[in-house]
């Protein structure tokens, strides 16, 4: 099932053409997006997602997204959804049409969560590490690379996932060229050691995750130690658990990394899922 709401506050047919062929989002991937999870009619972390949409737009020198208009599209999709308990909402915001008056294109599309993602939430997945070719300091030194912006240019991220599939895995952990852990193509990495949770710093040029933030908030309340610190690839193999977390995949366990089984983290996974769900 799919429901589409346009930024002007109208519903539209998701099966009909809505985007002009000269939209710069389409022609150059020149735009930004967010993916928001809705459960039982309630969007999760909507405020942080809209904050991040605005931050990404600013990094791309796009006009500031109309927050109230995006909130209205979210309500429209949620109110008109007649499908299952969960919705993946894609909020899209592009530079508009080539040679136009600068009016941005914006819409929110509600979709089902794929069976593949739901299976991975339950069973975990195998991941491989892949070099992302970036080094600490690059994000500040070269802001035009848009590291840490959630831009529509995700072709590299999708290519990395296809590379993982070619190598018999389902997911990717990006690393710097010197072997420091970054993030997944569409997820944040969280490592667990005893009652410590660690995630790499966004200053490395990665996206600050709303799911990781929610998990850390809850874990802190329950007396866990949470840290934002660099992680070397070797540390992943020695950890009690490695997780890829995102709005749509929630908390997903990595059971195999680069072909090597990681320690069984099924119980730890259940505990982290509890912590995450306690936020809602
Ligand atoms: C590159 C990247 N990192 C991390 C995340 C996780 O972010 P969130 O937890 O806010 O969904 C995403 C989400 O799609 C992403 O694309």
From TrEMBL:
Keywords: Aminotransferase, Transferase. One of its GO terms (molecular function) is transaminase activity. It holds the Pfam family Aminotran_4. GO terms for biological process: carboxylic acid biosynthetic process. GO terms for cellular component: cytosol. Belongs to the class-IV pyridoxal-phosphate-dependent aminotransferase family. PANTHER family: AMINO-ACID AMINOTRANSFERASE (PTHR42743), AMINODEOXYCHORISMATE LYASE (PTHR42743:SF11). This is Aminotransferase class IV.
């Amino acid at each position: 099932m799919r429901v589409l709401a346009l930024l002007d506050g109208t519903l539209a047919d998701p099966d009909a053409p809505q985007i002009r062929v000269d939209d710069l989002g389409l022609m150059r991937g020149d735009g930004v997006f967010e993916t928001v999870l809705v459960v039982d009619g309630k969007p999760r972390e909507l405020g942080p997602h809209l904050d991040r949409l605005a931050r990404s737009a600013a990094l791309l020198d796009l006009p500031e997204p109309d927050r109230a208009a995006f909130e209205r599209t979210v309500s429209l999709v949620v109110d008109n959804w007649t499908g299952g308990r969960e919705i993946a909402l894609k909020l899209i915001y592009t530079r508009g049409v080539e040679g136009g008056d600068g009016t941005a294109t914006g819409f929110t599309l509600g979709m089902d969560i794929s069976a593949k993602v739901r299976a991975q939430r339950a069973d975990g997945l195998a991941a491989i590490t892949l070099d992302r070719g970036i080094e600490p300091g690059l994000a500040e030194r070269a802001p035009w690379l848009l590291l840490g912006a959630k831009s529509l240019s995700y072709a590299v991220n999708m290519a990395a996932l296809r590379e993982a599939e070619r190598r018999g895995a389902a997911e990717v952990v990006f690393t710097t060229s010197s072997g420091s852990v970054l993030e997944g193509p569409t997820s944040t990495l969280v490592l667990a050691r005893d009652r410590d949770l660690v995630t790499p710093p966004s200053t490395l040029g990665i996206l600050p995750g709303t799911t990781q933030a929610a998990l850390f908030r809850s874990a802190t309340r329950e007396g866990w130690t949470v840290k934002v610190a660099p992680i070397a690839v070797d540390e992943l193999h020695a950890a009690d658990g490695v997780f890829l977390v995102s709005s749509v995949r929630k908390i997903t366990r990595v059971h195999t990394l680069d072909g090597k089984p990681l320690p069984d983290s099924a119980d730890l996974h259940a505990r982290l899922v509890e912590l995450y769900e306690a936020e809602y």
